Structure to design on (341 residues):
């Protein structure tokens, strides 16, 4: 089945690098090389996107935007090649389109290179975000007082790459969090053509668990699916080598000898937020499927809210929707064209 998209004019003067929806899909934020962020509201009567506000957000290209979970308010984060993270909050007392509706609450510096990706952790971990940039360092920040989002604390700084890539070489970095409440905190970081899973141990340190296999080019995008009651995890990547890859992760506790040990470990996690055994030691990774239908680079992958449908976008100007069959084989169920008819 082939469908077409309905475009709308954003008003950006240069290339749009990223867009993000809020939790409910009623707001859309875009960012661009013109150094501006624009936020649009969905009109429920006409299904049109109406400009909420537009403002100059950074001193260089704005490359990523991300909404926080709604329980923390109307919060938006942005990163830029100017090496800074900025936190914005919507002020409903300001008029729409005034350029003042989104207030800057904080500017976070510290990266030694251009930033490439930012992601909020799942809300059960608190107001936490991670960033990764061209210096190859994963930085994780916490807002220790959600009522005061002007103060952010760096809680972890991990060198993902031993040596940052040369400035003259093409590079890419991305990250995604495990949304599961019922296993140790995990974050997946993609740096160049490698993907590393970091797991939080019982000493509150992020340690490397496993690597995803098979990539033969820069990893452009990564997405960790909501578990929704599954006993395993699903991760998708989009790669410069033209492939969409879907991985299955299963994990068991180190030293599991039977049900009694498993129950003890789960009770420890529920009580202390950490397992007694070392995490990440028994993560098994299986490649479920690979697809090169885009006939070129894959730039974006994203799961739906139930983790049952994967969308991918590539150089062919299409969005493809993937869904598993009863035999757990992923097939393309729809192709959406970005070309106007």
């Amino acid at each position: 089945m082939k469908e077409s998209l309905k475009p709308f004019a954003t008003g950006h003067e240069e290339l749009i690098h990223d867009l993000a929806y809020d939790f409910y899909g009623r707001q859309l934020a875009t960012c661009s090389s013109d150094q501006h962020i624009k936020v649009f509201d969905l009109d429920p009567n006409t299904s049109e996107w109406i400009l909420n506000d537009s403002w100059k957000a950074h001193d260089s290209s704005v490359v990523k935007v991300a909404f926080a979970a709604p329980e923390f308010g109307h919060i938006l984060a942005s990163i830029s090649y100017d090496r800074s993270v900025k936190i914005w909050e919507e002020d409903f007392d300001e008029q729409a389109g005034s350029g003042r509706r989104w207030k800057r609450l904080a500017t976070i510096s510290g990266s030694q290179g251009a930033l490439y990706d930012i992601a909020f952790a799942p809300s059960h971990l608190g107001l936490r975000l991670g960033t990764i940039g061209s210096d190859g360092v994963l930085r994780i920040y916490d807002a220790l007082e959600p009522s005061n989002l002007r103060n952010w604390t760096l809680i972890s700084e991990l060198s993902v790459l031993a040596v940052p890539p040369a400035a003259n070489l093409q590079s890419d970095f991305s990250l995604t969090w495990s949304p599961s409440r019922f296993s140790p905190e995990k974050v997946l970081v993609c740096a160049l053509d490698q993907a590393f899973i970091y797991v939080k141990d019982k000493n509150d340190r992020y340690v490397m668990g496993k690597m995803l296999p098979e990539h033969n080019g820069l990893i452009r995008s990564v997405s960790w699916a909501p578990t929704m009651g599954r006993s395993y995890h699903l991760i998708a990547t989009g790669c410069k080598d033209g492939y969409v890859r879907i991985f299955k992760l299963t994990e068991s506790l180190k030293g599991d000898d039977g049900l009694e040990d498993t129950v003890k470990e789960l009770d420890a996690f529920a009580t202390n937020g950490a397992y007694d055994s070392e995490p990440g030691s028994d993560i098994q990774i299986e490649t479920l499927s690979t697809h090169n239908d885009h006939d070129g680079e894959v730039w974006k992958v994203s799961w739906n809210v139930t983790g049952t449908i994967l969308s991918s976008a590539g150089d062919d100007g299409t969005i493809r929707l993937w869904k598993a069959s009863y035999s757990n084989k992923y097939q393309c169920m729809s192709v959406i064209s970005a070309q106007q008819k």
User: Anything to note?
Assistant: The chain has a mean pLDDT of 88.
